[in-house]
Amino acid sequence: xxxxxxxxxxxxxxxxVAALSACVSAPEPPRAQAAAAIPQKPIPGRPQPTTxxxxxxxxxxxxxxxxxxxxxxxxxxxxxSVVRNLGQSFRGKVGIxxxxxxxxxxxxxxxxxxxxxxxxxxxxxxxxxxxxxDRGKLRITDTTTITRxxxxxxxxxxxxxxxxxxxxxxxxxxxxxxxxxxSDNTANDTLLRAVGGPEAxxxxxxxxxxxxxxxxxxxxxLQSATAGLDWRQDxxxxxxxxxxxxxxxxxVRQKALDNYLASPPDGAAPSSIVxxxxxxxxxDMLSPASSRLLLSIMSEAKTGPQRIKGGVPPGWSYLHKTxxxxxxxxxxxxxxxxxxxxxxxxxSYAVAVMIGSTTVGIPERWALMQAVAxxxxxxxxxx
Length: 383
Hints:
alpha+beta, Beta-lactamase, 14 helices, 10 strands, 43% helix
């Protein structure tokens, strides 16, 4: 009897719970979602968001198809040995990197350390400019006018042209050629402003997935800070910069140079530089047309004929960009050469030799660079 009563009570409880559950309302959506679901009327006087519908220009260099690269290929052991011995025996801090373009290896000494680039960095400015041309942001025939307020320091042949008439108008393509073949600092800084300044160059390198290449604040700020000076535009005239630098206490100059070398704002890793050169040669940095143009201009470089180029034999070709930093005797800094060597059979090697700091004379620096070129030639293995 009691068992039947218990079952009846349990049945009534089940029915009661079900009834209560039916009375519970469904959960409300969050207020933000509910508000978004109701069309909002424009509020008079308040700017309304719009969507740009401008036509988008195709990417200049879309991802390329898979390349047939032998990832098991290894560098010649003799080349590895020579590069190591050259780096170890040189009296100074040096970085060396050699990359066979189209292969999957790089031979390096101090390849991931950061070395002052100096004018090597002009290469990244030219690449950023040509990338802007590829994307339709600039035209290669666009012109600009350079005035006395745009002049920089050290090597700037354009200063004479500006002085003739108080200003000088030319095309961006001419400025790029002058920057790359004559290492004209004012031409390069003018081109740098046209592309959007240092941040535009850094952004370009990041988009091309090139790491460990810094880009400094521009020629004037970089060189004045390295010397221990605050930039003034009158330093761009004549030898005013040299005179101001010479008046500084030696301790100030030494500290400024030490700080620069310890963490160069324009520092770059040799292995990263040869990677970027290889990508340029393979049209992975710029469009094919822009790549051909830049490589052609680099082949016309007038600077550094006794650096790496001095060790390149007949039948081989070499295109490049040099860099040279400030001296504070007995130290010399930022003595560099980077470029692409091409064998008679068409095989190319990206090469970088960067002397961060040394007390040896120029002939010994030349000898090191030429020895790297000769090692590449001696260990070239035709495919």
